[in-house]
């Protein structure tokens, strides 16, 4: 879940090209990966709304239809779900790209795991699979992601996979609020270690 009780600031993270892909974390027993197929857009919106990224499933669905559905062939190899033992989609990540000037920049979009399934290692497995997918589809390039202070727990997870918070870079259309975000993140991470 997003922690909307703290101030919101944009955070940009980068995983440098050439880094080894870490050892694959396994999904817990009973869970499996499945790529996007037509008709699963509402499942994506449901997951994202469940963690607070959208106010309603409808809002998430509208966003998805406008921004991703036009790229249906790409979605089928870039948008990954985790399903539970009942076949319900409970987590997702998108191994996408953004355009910066004339360059296509590999980037992770829309990583979320439903609250009841957080803390089981599903998020680690999704991030690993996204890095692997981007390395295959985009080559040995820097991988970026945009996140926010509200997602500070995810920031800690990204750091375990070699992502670093960057102070003076960005990609696509994203703003970098490094100077405002870092005091909040330092306090949150210090509180967590006590």
TrEMBL record:
InterPro entries: Acyl_CoA_acyltransferase, GNAT_dom. PROSITE patterns: GNAT (PS51186). Residues 34-185 form the N-acetyltransferase domain. One of its GO terms (molecular function) is acyltransferase activity, transferring groups other than amino-acyl groups. Pfam families: Acetyltransf_1. Signal peptide: none annotated. CDD domains: NAT_SF (cd04301). This is N-acetyltransferase domain-containing protein. The lineage of its organism: Bacteria, Bacillati, Bacillota, Bacilli, Bacillales.
